[in-house]
User: Fold these one by one.
Assistant:
Number 1:
Amino acid sequence: MSEQDLALTFPYTATDLTDQINRVPNLYGLLNEINLFPTEGSISTIVEMRYEDGVLRVLPAKERGAPATPMAERVGKTIFLECPHFPSMDLITPKDLQNLTVINARTKRPITLEDEVTKRLINIRGTHAITREWVRSSALQGVIKDGNNVTIYDLYAAFAINKNTVFFNLSDAATDITAKCDAIWQAITTNLKGEVMTGIECIVDPVFFQAFVSHAKVLQFYVNAEQALAMANLLDALRRRESKGNMWGREFLFGRILFREYYGTAPIKSGGSLVSTPFWASGTGTAYPVGTRDMFRTYDAPANDIRFVNTMGQEIYISPEILEHGQGVEFKSESNPLAVCRRPEAVVQLSSAAS
């Protein structure tokens, strides 16, 4: 059988594979689960953002027929950010199929190329899903990083603003935790500047969460909430470990802020080897407004493929190539997500340490 014959028998084109892999649901990650960074396709690899300090003002009363109050001039600047490119390669060879079987309806049969393609698509989807979550989580913390822990963008530097940080000093039993929560509210609401919100949530790592709920000024509220729910024979909604995006973390409402515990880790390269790295460093967290209009976005750029130039970007692209002499099928996949917080000054970074 010639190479051309083999190519003709391969059942999937690049368009087919791209359509299929984007139909596989993304089940990974807390940020994906709560949809904090909604997805928006882009026909360009460059995202242009107009950064304006528009302020909503109260209009003065005037006589009917009098000249209307002119809108204040909106001062701002344009920021251009390029969508990062995350390519990956995979390969199916004869040894992945030869002498292997699957059980279907209690019947054993040889594994097919279609079986292996389906399995690989799920694995590839997972790889790009964890990458997407890493990009989003690092963007929420103000510095977008890749799988080598290399900084792609420092959003604070790009927007020319200073990072807001609240130090909780959780090792000190006398720390006024309510005042710390009020400081978060003050920092976020002051910097919304024309945006809206319905509340504040906070993602913290397990070390921060445990120190927080164990603090002398918080523990009694935590225990009382648990006991009250138990007496009502209800689920412990404030303390339960719930799988959201496969993240088994606890939740607790205190100081009008919903604290979410993030248990996720990702294999990130460090010192030449992959190291299981938490999405939030030990003793840290991030508070952010929820219910905003367009403060958070994930932009997906088109593939680095002439077949998809100037088309609306999708989450993942994948294309096959038949190797010479029937040695296998190579898959190149890529994703091009840019997660952006449009108002990083309205996001507060948390630390369990003293300032």
Number 2:
Amino acid sequence: MAFTIAHEIGHFILHDKEKETFRRLDAINLDRQDIIKEEEANWFAASLLMPYSEIMKWWANTQEIKKLAIVFGVSH
């Protein structure tokens, strides 16, 4: 849930010039521009929820993905 919210915030911040809101029914048939926007929003969400510097601090202590997911409240 947190990732989805962060992802949508990413769209709002990164793609704010596009005021059009729509519901995508067929995510399989995205054009290249939409795929890029989705990747950007995913990157934003991951960076917001799991800042690189914090990941590296925790990674030094435990290199277990499941533990890190719990710490950052994300899915593994």
Number 3:
Amino acid sequence: DPANGRQGYERYCVSCHGADGRGVVANAPDFSRGEGLMAPDVTIAQTLRSGKGGMPSFLGILSNTEMLDVVAYLRTLQR
């Protein structure tokens, strides 16, 4: 659910990835250009689960459903 995903994104992701998904820290993907969004939903959710590079793991912070909701929201940022 992208609406639920937006809440999670705004709480946990916006400080590094920006309100519009363009990324505000070094090496953050530009979601508005589709960077990092070519993978299947479960693969992107696994990145949220385990972390990657400077991004922390959200295991124990977000449920699996909430992670998939965040992925659904990320896809709405692509232009």
